[in-house]
Amino acid sequence: MQVHGQKIVVLGTGGTIAGTASAADDNIGYTAAQVGVEQLLHAVPGLQAASGGSLVAEQIAQLDSKDMEFSVWGALAQRCASALADPDVRGVVITHGTDTLEETAWFLQSVLDAHKPVVLTCAMRPATALVPDGPQNLLDAVAVATTPGARGVVVVAAGAVHCAQRVQKVHPYRVDAFSSGDAGPLGWVEEGAVRLVKNWPSGQSKQALLAMKNIASCVQWPRVEVVLSYAGATGALVDSLVRDGVQGIVVAATGNGTIHRALEGALLRAQAAGVRVVRSTRCPEGQILPKPGDTFADSRGLSAVKARISLMLELLA
Ligand code: SIN
Question: CB within 8 A of 245, min separation 6: which ones?
Answer without folding.
Answer: 223
